[in-house]
Predict the 3D structure of the following.
Amino acid sequence: MQSHGSLSLGEQQRALQNEPGFRELPRQVQQNRLNMLGRLYNMNPQQRSRMLNGVENLERLSPQQQQQWDHAVQQLHGSAIPRRSMMIHAIADLREMPPDQRQQVIDSPRFAGDFSAEERQTIRTILTVYPPNHSAGDTQ
């Protein structure tokens, strides 16, 4: 995306399809990557930057941390829709906070009343990849 940012979506998708190893991926993985490129293309620059930073942070995790993160995402997606929705909203709200404040909220009695220990751990793990959503003037 970064090296082909000036290209149209179709041109970017063709460039992705021509990347070494792309055609060896399973068809569903190929389609998922093309779909993700389409979503990135349609994001505003701030959203795109946050998404790409999250992907870069995920790539920096150790194999064990990546495995924990994958498990947390599976837990989230395996949750009943009302619980999943609550967790997704909590993650979005927590992303707006500095890391110290995030931790205080997750450890609070109110949060513990809303989410089980397993759900809180899932939220914590997912947040390890996503930096807080601060504007340029904010500090951490």
